Amino acid sequence: MVRTQIYLTKRQRDELAAIARVAGKKQSELIREAVDRLIEQAGRGRREAVLREVAGMWKDRTDLPDFEATRAEWDRN
Hints:
Number of strands: 0
Helix content: 55-70%
Radius of gyration: 25 Å
Distance between the termini: 56 Å
Structural class: mainly alpha
Shape: elongated
Order of helices and strands: HHH
């Protein structure tokens, strides 16, 4: 692990300490869990943005094979 210092407001520190007591965890553990959740959410958002950006990118291409005909042929075999 890498040591990182952060500044919290008094309210954030007090609330975090109370949650840590109830959960039986260290404040640093709760902060790491929160950061992990934020990273996961941001990653999902980035993936969704990329998918939206590329959606339909081949719709106007005329040099591609007829996928419906190819699929129909596969289904016959």
